[in-house]
Amino acid sequence: MDFHNTDDAVTRRIKAMSDRLTYLRTSDLYFYNQPVEEILGGAKVRVRGREMGMYASYSYLGLVGHPRINEAAKKAVDKFGTGTNGVRTLAGTLTIHNELEETIANFKHAESAITYSSGYATNLSVISTMMGRGDYVFSDKINHASIVDGCLMSGAEFRRFRHNDMEHLEGLLKNAPEDVSKLVIADSVFSMDGDIIDLPKVVELCRKYHAWLMIDEAHSVGVLGGKGTGIEEHFNLYGAIDIKMGTLSKTIPSVGGYVAAKKEIVDYLRHASRAYIFSAALPPAQAAAANEAFKVILDEPWRIVRLTENTKQFIGGLKSMGFDTLLTETAIVPVLCGEDDTAFAMTREAQHNDVFVLPVVSPAVQEGLARLRATVTAAHDPSEIERAMDVIGEAGKKLGLIK
Questions:
Q1: CA-based nearest residue to 348, from 47, 37, 28
Q2: Closest CA to 115 of 217, 229, 248
């Protein structure tokens, strides 16, 4: 017997989602959660029995399946098994965890580093551990959800500045009490728009108003800088960021998150952040894979060159067709569609022609700004990119987005 109130708010929310999903599925507009059956090299996948070009991958340098990284993971399983003895603080720390954190610190030009079980958990835990009631956090309007959740969870005064609007940020910093702790936090490369934070100005403002600076580098490692080390290299501002956060699941083909910072900050997080203290340690194979991936990036700089060339080709080609790609200058290329249903229909047309792209719709982006969030990687051949653009172009014409 069902004792739940059939008309309470929870029931209504569940029903609203269920109705939306039913509509999308029956209209051949639902393309989320599709299982990839096989990864065919860096740029192609098999989905529903069909070979498709992959344009929704975060593997920006095409490192998924790299022989050196696979081999490191296999050796770690042989040496340590598939799991650990528990949380890092107690029995779960292995030598490979320490090696990984040392590798990250060196790669990010920092004194020390700490790893977490996911990027989401990293932001949630680090922000809420660093900041508390009475403190002030300043967050870019379109920062990742994990940053927003971390700010809310901290209990600090939460101020959002207009996207990449440094004047607005300065106004908010100026209006905050002088004697409180302040943290400014932003994505380096914004995950939905593909543009880059104005780091030189943010650094200047943080110094002027005595604020800490945390930058989420989930989408900039392997993408920005000649060696792929990220946003500090891109702007030649090494040492400008207090807390360098990143993930191990995008360019780095593993799972987890990290912070690179001064030793005192990392020691504090290691003994005070709940997601580190109370989460099981990274599995050995994943830690070893991540460790090797950072080394591969430095050993194979041609991947960054290829990614840059492919990015220019993809953005330039779509813009010349008449698509609005917002202000992207990275491998994340939004193809603006407007209404949610248009983005779903664009996805349907592309996937029916073996181009694997996915839609991003409200509430992940503002209503009226639904899009294909297409990505390009170093693994794509220029001819494959041309074909993908042709398919997206035909879909755009069919749906009236371009002429």
A1: 28
A2: 248
Looking at residue 7, what is its pLDDT? Answer: 80
Q: What pLDDT, on the 0 to 100 scale, is given for residue 1?
A: 47
Catalytically annotated residues: 191, 219, 250
- Interatomic CA distance for residues 330 and 333, integer angstroms: 7
CA dist 326 and 309 (Å) reads 19
Give 105's contacts (C-beta < 8 A, 6+ positions apart). 111, 112, 113, 260
Is 3.10.150.10 the CATH classification of the domain at 67-299?
no
Predicted confidence (pLDDT) at residue 4 exceeds the cutoff of 90: no
Mean pLDDT rounded to a whole number for the chain: 96
Q: Rounded CA gap, 97 and 287, in Å? A: 6
* Domain 20-54+301-398 CATH superfamily: Aspartate Aminotransferase, domain 1 (3.90.1150.10)
- Measured between alpha carbons, how far is 104 from 110 in angstroms, rounded to an integer? 8
Q: Is the pLDDT of residue 174 over 70?
A: yes
Mean pLDDT over 181-188 rounds to 98
